[in-house]
Write a structure and sequence with these properties.
By secondary structure, this protein is mainly β. 8% of the residues lie in helices and 25% in strands. It has 2 helices and 8 strands, in the order H-E-E-E-H-E-E-E-E-E. The strands form 3 sheets. It has a 4-stranded mixed β-sheet. It is globular, with a radius of gyration of 14 Å. The two termini are 24 Å apart. 10% of the residues are buried. The mean pLDDT is 83.
């Protein structure tokens, strides 16, 4: 509900630590995300449907200490991290 009522929308301040650190997680398959959805008092489930531009991503094994994507060999940082099963992405900075 904090995300829904916020002036900032999908803001990292509302995120929790997951397998790839603190960030906002998105899945390719809504069935995967259902386990993380909000359950209302009427026993229905709610989740956000978003179009997300993940930018240049890197596939990594789980790493709970991440707070931003790793550095690219050519300089700068990747925009997002993808899990090794390619089922979900983690975004760390929504200011881009």
């Amino acid at each position: 509900m904090n995300i829904l009522k916020s002036d900032y929308g999908l803001d990292n301040r509302f995120s929790r630590e997951g397998m790839y650190g603190t960030g906002i997680y998105f899945a390719d398959n809504s069935n995967y995300s259902k386990t993380y959805s909000y359950q209302t008092p009427q026993n229905t489930f709610q989740m956000f449907f978003c179009l997300v531009i993940v930018g240049e991503s890197v596939t990594l094994a789980p790493n709970k200490s991440l707070t931003m994507p790793p550095a690219k060999p050519s300089g700068g940082h990747y925009d997002s991290v993808r899990n090794s099963n390619s089922t979900h992405y983690v975004i760390y900075d929504f200011n881009k």
